[in-house]
């Protein structure tokens, strides 16, 4: 939902978005857990007054933004997609990211659907209902930021704010045809967002374009003036590494064809693309995985801190993983933290030579919702969706998923950069986006 230079007022665009939310064919009642229509109308009207007076707060002023249901909004309970958190006290103040959005003049239209505790890549939630993929309602949207991506693709918001622990921004972007950006750890403020994993969680944008994703990144990072605008990096002479190996195992033909065709377009734009390997680094990651899983361990600890003694009422698929995490010895958790620190250093050294990796965001197109009904199939699909994206979280790399031309369902191409190279990666992604258009 792009805004042209002679765009309608914020109020007009908001009313169009609210109309789409109310459209039953778009499943707005499933996409949003809360809709802030009157507050949004007041914010849009205030933005229009500033625009008329020539005093906008910045480039985000008046833009329509949705926020994932794990962010605190003052006066509302943050249930993070779980039935067992619905009776918690209402938040006393906005999450820091929400406060920055308001300060920048953003119009927050509502909070969006997510998987329970953000603990699934599929995008389904037995407590809230299952909104379908905006490109094909019978298929999964991807998660855990499922409502976020649907809100953008279906024109219910212009930009969405979500979270990413193992791919939760990039997976729905790839499956539903949007841009999803995972920043480096610590770049954007996570205070006031319900944590799945304090070690791996980051927040970030889903948008229709790289420029909009970069705008939200800059505003939330509260960076120096001028970083809100993004100049695409020319691809001529730009070097990329394609890490052939296990991350390409089992890739669907439709995904493989679209990915290879995208590489050809990037080469035609002047990019230098070489095949290579990060198998040694992935071996080190596999060693960490054999010890334990950060998400399960840290979510179990969070729920214990909230005084939740019984896990009755949690989706059984999720409950089993939390219970396993809660039994992990403390010594193993310490070992995991130390191993991850080594992983980060290892990959940083690897990327000092070739700083941008390209690979399919996920190895498959959006599965049918019906195909995830059985537990074994659900877990198999969930792990397949997470396989490539989680690499960026464990090694703390900025990563972005871009939609690429495809014959059928959406396909995503993921670029991963060196730790801390967020704005550089966004500039390169904008250059790639132009070449793939």
Automatic annotation (TrEMBL):
Which molecular function term from Gene Ontology is one that the record holds?
catalytic activity
InterPro entries annotated for this entry? Amidase (IPR000120), Amidase_dom (IPR023631), AS_sf (IPR036928)
The protein in question is named Amidase
Amidase domain location is 16-426
Q: A Pfam family name for this chain?
A: Amidase
Under NCBIfam families, the record lists: PRK05962.1 (NF004622), PRK07056.1 (NF005460)
Tell me what organism the protein belongs to: Azospirillum thiophilum
Tell me where on the tree of life, at the top rank, the source sits: Bacteria
